[in-house]
Design a protein that fits this description.
Layout: H1 2-7, E1 13-15, E2 17-18, E3 30-34, E4 41-46, H2 50-67, H3 72-101, H4 105-125, E5 133-134, E6 141-149, E7 152-156, H5 164-175, E8 179-183, H6 189-205, E9 213-216, H7 220-228, E10 234-238, H8 241-253, E11 257-261, E12 266-270, H9 276-288, E13 298-304, H10 305-320, H11 340-355, E14 359-362, E15 381-384, E16 400-406, H12 409-417, E17 421-422, E18 424-428, H13 432-439, E19 448-451, E20 463-464, E21 467-468, E22 475-476, E23 485-493
Parallel strand pairs: 1-4, 7-8, 7-10, 8-9, 10-11, 12-13, 12-18, 13-16, 15-16, 18-19
Antiparallel strand pairs: 2-9, 3-4, 5-6, 6-23, 14-15, 17-21, 20-22
Helix pairs in contact: 3-4, 3-6, 4-5, 7-8, 9-10
The structure holds 2-aminohexanedioic acid (UN1).
Enzyme class: oxidoreductase
Keywords: NAD, Oxidoreductase
Organism: Chitinophaga niabensis
Amino acid sequence: MQNILKQFNISAVNSGVSTGAVWMEAGGPQLTSFSPVDGKEIASVKSANREDYDAVVKKAAEAFQAWRQWPAPRRGEIVRQVGEALRTNKEALGKLVSYEMGKSLQEGYGEVQEMIDICDFAVGLSRQLHGLTMHSERPGHRMYEQWHPLGITAIISAFNFPVAVWSWNSMLAWVCGDVCIWKPSEKTPLTALACQHITAKVFAENGVPEGVSCLVAGAREVGEWMAKDTRIPLVSATGSTRMGKSVGAAVGERLGRSLLELGGNNAIIISKDADLDMSLIGCVFGAVGTAGQRCTSTRRLIIHESVYESFKAKLVKAYAQLRIGDPLNEHNHVGPLIDKQAVDAYLQSIEKCKAEGGKFVVEGGVLEGADYASGCYVKPAIAEVQNSYSIVQHETFAPILYLIKYNTLEEAIALQNDVPQGLSSAIMTVNLREAEQFLSQSGSDCGIANVNIGTSGAEIGGAFGGEKETGGGRESGSDAWKAYMRRQTNTINYTDKLPLAQGIKFDL
Ligand code: UN1
């Protein structure tokens, strides 16, 4: 790990405030990053105080004046080179993600791959920031729309995807002509430092203005400054519903734009017509992958009563085979939770579930012993519950899977939708009628609805996000780029008359 830290210029104590090549003398409190893998302190990062923050916003605003003049395909060329640099650094960055955050090495690499993929996507997009043309109702008039850069995009990201979520936002924002200020999770500042170093090198080689890629490490208050800051037209925030409500309210108060990607409470319906063996992988990976800390993690299985017992038996057997331990050891399936606080939340959820009547068919618990010295390794658990339990309605960021029984598909869909969140959902069925009903307007109410794959592991090409308490934002693929630009409608009169719209007569 020492070599990797060195490769990314990370020393024992680092500045967490940067406008690109420049790392400022940060005056805020120091954040210490501990690895949940072994509990050891990795390094510290000095966070931004208000003065540092203001200096960064000023630099970013200046950079925007220049950056927005760069042709979009040229901005795309810079992002292409960032993608190349990520390819070169994939192994090292993937390992650092795995060590600082605790996800399995495969998933660490997968996260960096998502970054590379969004770079490729953004490069193509840089030549496709299309607007529409319309037919004017007036003779000799032309009407069209164009998309202009918006300004500063603030990115607040969470610990669970410490680098990919930043890249979904920043790569799109950059090709759109925006500049970015990133507040990474205070739990994973080092992977952010690494990304900033990778980007800054590419930017410096290409003469990209200082301020196009900014980093402001810090705790909650930095996010609050961003949310209230009228110099920032767009705040893109990923995290808990609680955080999103406060960011959304503060941004809304000043009529700014927010893009919120908040909690999920994702379910898979296992139909009587499901291929049970195939479904098993999707369910188990969805529930225990990233130790249940994805916003797309599978939290609930809604299982048809005719296959309930047999599928439960398969799950119990599969869980017995899970290997929990050091995520850097590729032999293991499940790594640690992010920190002790997360372990407490996991334990409390188990207690609450039991108190409400939940019956555990796979018991949870915290693992002890030399291999689990960080105290953050927990056993993935499975409980039989009712969907109405308050704990089942709540997103616990941990590997606890709830089993619910159903009889008719209508009932299953109603259960799937009957939670405050609306991010991801899936049905396992080979029955076309069921699949189509699930995807129809009276089916899943989520932003993501899948057939015969699980709830997690979305590809970057689609718009990512969800409804209800998930916040309504869409990031990543499809036309999510539109959130990072401002639309302008233009009407041009190329005659020597000035007819008014709607046929209004106004003669002088
Ligand atoms: C998140 O957990 O915040 O679909 C994002 C997935 C990943 C992204 C998850 N591509 O699981």
